[in-house]
Amino acid sequence: MTKYLVIQKENMTSLMKRHTGLILLLLAMVFITISGFAWNVKSVTITADGETRIVKTHLNSADGVLRDAGITLGSKDAVLLSTTTVQNGTELTVLRAFPVKVIVDGVASDVMTVQTTAQGLADELGYKAPNYVPLGDSQAHLQSGSEVAIARVTSRSVKSYEQPVDVQVIHQRDDTMRKGEQEVVQEGSAGLIAVQEEILYQDGKEIKKQIISQNEIKQMVPTIIKEGTRDVVETSRGVVRYREVLTMEASAYLPGDGDGRGITASGMVAQRGVVAVDPNVIPLGTRLYIPGYGMAIAADTGGAIKGHRIDLLMDSYGEAMEFGRRSIEVYVLQ
After folding, report:
1. Strand (E) positions, 181-255?
2. pTM of this prediction?
């Protein structure tokens, strides 16, 4: 009896060990499954209907991810993926189909599409080259309500000709030159290309022309123009900013010239620094800087001062005579 009990106890111990091993194995499998499930979670960016959001998912198909996010796709809608498969960091973009009117050989119909060009829509509908062609610009951007005409091609011809290439003008900013100054540093010359053009016909009527090749015969040389951007000038009062520089014919006068009262047209006392101008060219009250003369203000006029003429008020007769008449640059200050 004692021997039987010992054997029975050993059997139960062995059975419990086997069950414990099985339970541990099952727990390990569950842990691995749960861990693998958690490890497979991905962050995916979804852009749809004007909104962008990031979702967490363990799904591996775009349709599944969108469905899980509550986004419904129409039969003509499309989805763009930033990667070949749904991965962590993948961006999903939903393209909503929009209505376009299509006219094929005079027969109109309304279709839904996500295609963005007339050629793409024609290809999608099966109207492909060389038997069909979209009229107008094949790469024209489509949007809701666009109209695309597609014609059947029955014959074609090719025309070759030479076409000039207009000179391109390149403007280069140069802060070593004052504002308004220009310098041509390279004279351009026109180019020349050989063009092959295909003409498409439908029942003998021309329906479209399109370039099929272009080969350069002579390279176009651009004209290069430097343009000054420096808008400051150094004066005895420091650096000042100006808005334009005028080349003017200058003469000199004295405070007692004119009616002899020594009062300018603007009411200011006639003294050095006052200049007479044509108000149609330089408005009265405008601050000026004149190299060799200094800071000035446009405050006077004169019967002979018309157009790009300026009269500088001097302190003495000798200074006025020495100045005489000359061409000068006048900086119109800001």
Report:
1. 182-186, 191-202, 205-218, 223-230, 232-235, 238-253
2. 0.55
